[in-house]
């Protein structure tokens, strides 16, 4: 396995690896299958239960505190993992994205004045 996860392909390969799948479960177990950020807020957010006839909604993610893109050596370090709900995960990713990507162009306001 290359010690680099820069491209989508490299990341995909990593997330499909047996080593990651196993470690991911270790992290979930350690975190009691709860979102760690919600927990810090005094809330309990756990994975939804699969409902009959419905697709299982994925609520919990195992997140790398230090992204593997920049810290490939921490990709398989349990201490670098945290269980987050989809909301908190998006917030975290959103923040990171803001730093990496310039803000999208503002919409031009070309409505006419009435
Ligand atoms: Zn949460």
From TrEMBL:
Alphabetized Gene3D superfamilies for the sequence: 1.10.30.50
InterPro entries named in the record: HNH_nuc
Organism per entry: Tigheibacillus halophilus
Keyword vocabulary terms for this entry: Endonuclease, Hydrolase, Nuclease
Record carries keyword Transferase: no
Residue ranges constituting the HNH nuclease domain according to the UniProt record: 22-90
A Gene Ontology molecular function term of the record: endonuclease activity
Protein name as it appears in the record: HNH endonuclease
Keyword DNA-binding part of the UniProt annotation: no
